[in-house]
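4.2 Preliminary Data

To establish feasibility before requesting continued support, the project team ran the inverse folding procedure on a target of 789 residues. The structure was first converted into the token representation described in Section 3, and no sequence information of any kind was made available to the design step. The complete token record follows.
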């Protein structure tokens, strides 16, 4: 086969325009396939950066999405018989180290974390067993990227003191590059022992679920034996905490499988991306195959002569496949280079903000597979056609085989058009969904809303309420401000989840029916949002107490937990246990969506400031008119807190719709590429058809047919072909729309608008791609065609 390579390259060099177009199409297809695989790998399949990750098992409880209380996690670590650890994350932790300061993500560990992960220190040392003990010195290990970017890679940082939420930790080590996450989508900048956590009540609280436990099975250990030991640990935990013992259980799940199960939304997005990119790769294959087929039939005399002097059909097939593979290899190499740039662009997409999209071995394997697939898929049809047939007939028939060329070409064009129609329909569906999502009713006065996050973590717990309330009053007194309040929730940003206990509902008996969302709120927060109290009253400043005494709830919670009666005056226990004091409901507020297109769910608010709160400000007019005043207060050097940038409701909408925006960007890119490829295929097919029909058209012109009538004849033939592709494309588009319906908001698969837009777009491109080569060819002198041999 290697003997054919120089000949194949020489054959391509004789037709530079053809070679350039075919190679460019292959490069685009390979680059898109490689980029898509890189995105999917980062979203779903890439595990945490641990050695021998297949030996890692996540230990999950059967409530609260599998997370565990810290003391339960310690019992598992001590009694499981395997090397194990647990982790939890803290967000927006204040740090300072000499002149450097800001907010970071902190990972708090228990057990033998780095031994389980089999990580080694890049500088200094990692956490040791003594670092996890009560009374030990607080120490921290820093991530390599944080050390390099934020601390400029200072060599003397080991041994320095870093303050986290005002608490000093001695830096003892730096992790190696790439070893910086114990959860796929969270990238901490620092690691500490949970024993030194900032909230004293967390460490021994068996009612606060925050830790994820992971164990490494030693060589020879089996998952069944490990699960048996976990069952024994479950019995021990149930003895330690008898309430709800019948409901407690532990399950060992391979870490790779557990991480994938927690990424169901990303998995769905990945299937959609892979499906659409596969369609585009097929379009590229059909396009190149069409070009190779047409080009091969132009050379049928050449191959007939080769056959007549002794070349076998297999040798002809080898040459044609060799040319196809040469095009694919060159295009694949260029596609890999192009994908390096596209992967960098893809890493900026909103829905991959928490993972790293990079070119790795999997991406390279995808590029090789796409290259080989394109070469074989696009070369088999022309090779099969030209390797058969009688030599004498090939030498004598001249252009008589145009009908056979056209039949094969028609099939390829119909396939291109139908797949392009599918991609375009999906792109228009997502466009319409995104447009309607931006226009949905949020249920609050968002157009006049500004907000910013404040970290109170360095402030003692006993003073946080007062500091937060003082800041609220300062904001409310700004000229042009109508109202101000704070909450742990941000606009369209979700809330915490818990299980309520009432006289009628108990989580130990019906957990699913007791789920509710919660947030911490201030006096005036609901008024700031423009959400009315429909019965009762708002919380008051005097009610910022611990334990909680009062709460406000939404209409959905009232209907769910107190059907047929008013919730005002009723009591519930917010954290699912019977031992806690009840909270009295003082008001019911109107439902409003916490996420676009999500139905309202039971939600309650408790009056208190937490370590991180968002201050909301409603202005009299455009909130940007008070941005300078807000920045002056937020950035005041005398502040005890750390404030982030001021944002607006439009920012919240964009953040909440980042998945839809990312899908739109991906689909729009694929749709544009599909249009370009399809238009190229239609243009090339029309040009070849007109060339093959030159004698027929010249005879028609010689007996009086006008160029315009022949142009219309050519257009009609092409449009019939395109129409067949559009009919098939509509069927495929509808099937694809049904498949992606769950990822569309406010749009039904049966809506006509996306399909009409698709038809208009493809027809316009098809007419243009048909008209230009036909018009050019029909301007030629018919005598030239009639004189050709």
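Position-by-position output of the design step:
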């Amino acid at each position: 086969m290697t003997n054919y390579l120089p000949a194949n390259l020489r054959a391509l060099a004789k037709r530079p325009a053809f070679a350039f177009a075919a190679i460019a199409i292959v490069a685009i297809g390979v680059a898109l396939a490689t980029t898509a695989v890189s995105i999917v790998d980062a979203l779903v399949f890439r595990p945490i950066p641990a050695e021998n990750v297949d030996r890692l098992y996540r230990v999950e409880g059967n409530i609260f999405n599998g997370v565990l209380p810290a003391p339960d996690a310690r019992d598992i670590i001590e009694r499981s018989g395997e090397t194990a650890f647990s982790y939890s994350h803290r967000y927006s932790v204040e740090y300072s180290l000499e002149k450097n300061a800001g907010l970071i993500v902190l990972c708090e560990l228990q057990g033998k974390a780095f031994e389980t992960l089999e990580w080694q220190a890049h500088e200094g040392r990692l956490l040791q067993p003594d670092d996890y003990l009560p009374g030990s010195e607080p120490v921290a290990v820093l991530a390599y990227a944080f050390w390099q970017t934020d601390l400029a890679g200072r060599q003397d940082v080991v041994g320095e003191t870093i303050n986290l939420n005002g608490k000093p930790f001695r830096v003892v080590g730096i992790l190696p590059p790439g070893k910086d996450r114990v959860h796929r989508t969270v990238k901490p900048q620092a690691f500490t022992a949970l024993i030194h956590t900032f909230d004293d009540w967390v460490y021994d609280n068996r009612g606060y679920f925050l830790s994820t436990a992971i164990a490494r099975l030693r060589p020879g250990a089996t998952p069944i034996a490990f699960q048996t030991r976990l069952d024994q640990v479950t019995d021990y935990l149930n003895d330690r905490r008898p309430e709800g013992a019948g409901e407690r259980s532990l399950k060992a799940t391979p870490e790779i499988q557990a991480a994938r199960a927690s990424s169901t939304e990303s998995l769905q997005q990945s299937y959609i991306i892979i499906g659409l990119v596969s369609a585009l790769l097929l379009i590229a294959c059909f396009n190149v195959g069409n070009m190779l087929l047409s080009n091969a039939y132009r050379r049928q005399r050449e191959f007939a002569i080769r056959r007549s002097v002794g070349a076998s059909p297999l040798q002809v097939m080898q040459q044609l496949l060799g040319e196809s593979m040469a095009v694919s290899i060159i295009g694949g190499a260029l596609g890999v280079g192009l994908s390096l740039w596209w992967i960098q662009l893809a890493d900026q997409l909103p829905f991959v903000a928490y993972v790293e999209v990079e070119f790795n071995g999997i991406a390279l394997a995808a590029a090789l597979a796409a290259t080989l697939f394109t070469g074989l898929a696009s070369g088999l049809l022309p090779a099969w056609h030209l390797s058969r047939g009688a030599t004498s007939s090939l030498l004598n028939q001249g252009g008589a085989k145009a009908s056979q060329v056209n039949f094969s070409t028609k099939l390829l064009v119909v396939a291109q058009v139908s797949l392009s129609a599918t991609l375009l329909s999906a792109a228009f569906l997502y466009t319409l969904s995104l447009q309607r999502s931006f226009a949905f009713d949020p249920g609050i006065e968002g157009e006049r809303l500004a907000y910013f996050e404040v970290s109170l973590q360095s402030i003692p717990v006993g003073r946080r309420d007062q500091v937060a309330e003082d800041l609220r009053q300062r904001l409310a007194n700004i000229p042009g401000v109508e109202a101000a309040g704070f909450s742990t929730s941000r606009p369209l940003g979700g809330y915490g989840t818990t299980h309520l206990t009432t006289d009628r509902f108990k989580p130990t008996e019906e957990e699913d029916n007791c789920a509710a969302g919660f947030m911490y709120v201030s006096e005036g927060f609901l008024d700031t949002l423009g959400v009315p109290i429909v019965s009762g009253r708002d919380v008051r400043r005097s009610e910022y107490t611990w334990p909680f005494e009062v709460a406000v709830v939404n209409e959905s919670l009232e209907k769910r937990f107190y059907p047929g009666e008013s919730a005002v005056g009723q009591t519930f226990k917010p954290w699912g246990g019977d031992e806690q004091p009840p909270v009295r409901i003082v008001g019911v507020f109107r439902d409003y969506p916490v996420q676009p297109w999500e139905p309202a769910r039971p939600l309650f608010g408790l009056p208190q400031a937490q370590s991180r709160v968002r201050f909301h400000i409603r202005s009299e007019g455009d909130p940007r008119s008070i941005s300078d005043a807000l920045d002056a207060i937020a950035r005041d050097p005398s502040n005890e807190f750390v404030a982030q940038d001021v944002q607006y409701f439009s920012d919240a909408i964009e953040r909440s719709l980042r998945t839809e925006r990312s899908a739109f960007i991906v689909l729009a890119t694929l749709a544009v590429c599909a249009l370009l490829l399809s238009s190229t295929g239609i243009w090339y097919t029309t040009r070849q058809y007109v060339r093959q029909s030159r004698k027929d058209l010249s005879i028609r012109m010689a007996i009086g047919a006008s160029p315009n009538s022949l142009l219309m004849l050519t257009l009609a033939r092409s449009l019939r072909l395109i129409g067949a592709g559009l009919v098939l494309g509509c069927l495929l588009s509808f099937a694809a729309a049904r498949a992606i319906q769950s990822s569309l908001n406010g749009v039904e698969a049966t809506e006509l608008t996306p399909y009409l837009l698709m038809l208009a777009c493809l027809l316009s491109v098809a007419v243009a791609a048909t008209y230009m080569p036909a018009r050019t060819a029909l301007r030629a002198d018919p005598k030239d065609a009639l004189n050709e041999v």
